[in-house]
Amino acid sequence: MTVSPHRDRQAGATASFAAPLFLALLAALPVGCQSAPELAPLSAMELAEADALRRHDPKAGFVKDRGTLFVSLDQNLRKWRELCARTDVADIDQRSSLEVVLTKQVYYNFETILNELERGTDHDHRVTAAAAIGFSKIPAPDEPGGDADFPALHPRALPPLLYVIESGQDELVINSLLSLARLKMSATPRDLLIELMIKHHHADVRANAAYALAEIAGPQDGPLLMPALFSALSDPAAPVRLHAVKALGRIGDRAAQGQLIERLRRDDTPLVQACAAMELGKLGDWSTVGFLIEGLESDAQLLAFQCHHALVKLTGKTEIKGYLAWREWWEKSPENRDRPRT
């Protein structure tokens, strides 16, 4: 049995994790609605402390007992997923701290976790490993904050994750896709993610595939990804539509503008509408201003805020507040091709 996006499985079982809806909106939303921050690498001080520990004990941070390790990982992952669904500042801070804890825990025990993912016989441990391995990414030695004593391990996780996804077991696929999204490896095959996003029977699989695409997509992916993402915008599951919108924004092709406007105006989930407004603001096309002004009338505070934010980003008019003021300004603006002529 697979956990739903909003409910843990029964006590004692291992959870699979759908991509939290709020992850897609990033820092463009007000503080109370921010998504999970980027995975925090070990700081220079933490790296120095860890190096000192390793000189005394090369296995510092390593958990010898496999059962203890996976119970702890499962508990930390459950707590992380719970915090991802909250939006209070204190919860965001706690989530960020927990991500650092998970990063250290997974990095020091990487071999055990990877071995469990590849060859483990305990199903629950493998499900946990599939989600945990996504927290293994720290700066490479040649990157800012990197350290030669802490080489990048996460690229080794890609083949096992892909193998697990090919197994077709829903829980493993859901968690493996979440790890691919967190690791953001450019070598991740787009074709596989597209197929899962469009065709899979499980909504959480489709959502996490879309989430992974949103994390790795770039302008160069437009010709391959855009037709599939347009199709995903009609998915009955809101998280799939949300991450498809985000992926279109990452590609940055104005050919997606019509589809994003349609999501802004017609989607029945305010979070998806708000994300569409955010991406329209980034595309920088003034022809969307009228639609964004319409969104200011929404009763959904999140959508109204994001429409205002997008309008400010597009126009630079920080002094205009509220629907009536924006509409009055737009009716007179020389940028409005449909304004009344006198």
Q: Key features?
A:
342 residues, Leucine-rich Repeat Variant, mainly alpha
Strand fraction:
under 5%
Q: Helical percent range?
A: 55-70%
| Order of SSEs | HHHHHHHHHHHHHHHH
Main beta sheet: none
Q: Number of DSSP helices?
A: 16
Overall pLDDT, averaged?
84
N- to C-terminal distance: 66 Å
SSE-based structural type = mainly alpha
Shape: elongated
Q: Please give the radius of gyration in angstroms.
A: 22 Å
Which blocks of ≥5 consecutive residues have pLDDT under 50? 1-12, 22-40
How many extended strands? 0
**How many structural domains in the coordinates?**
3
Give structural notes.
The chain has 342 residues and is an all-alpha fold. It has 16 helices and no strands. It has helices spanning 44-56, 66-84, 89-108, 110-119, 123-132, 158-167, 170-183, 190-199, 203-216, 222-232, 238-251, 257-266, 270-283, 289-295, 301-315, 323-332. The model is unreliable at 1-12 and 22-40 (pLDDT under 50). Helix 5 (123-132) runs parallel beside helix 7 (170-183) and helix 6 runs antiparallel to helix 7 (170-183). It folds into three domains: 1-183, no CATH class; 189-252, Leucine-rich Repeat Variant (Alpha Horseshoe), CATH 1.25.10; 271-342, Alpha Horseshoe (Leucine-rich Repeat Variant). The longest helix is centred in the first third of the chain and has 20 residues, at 89-108. The protein is 59% helix and 0% strand.
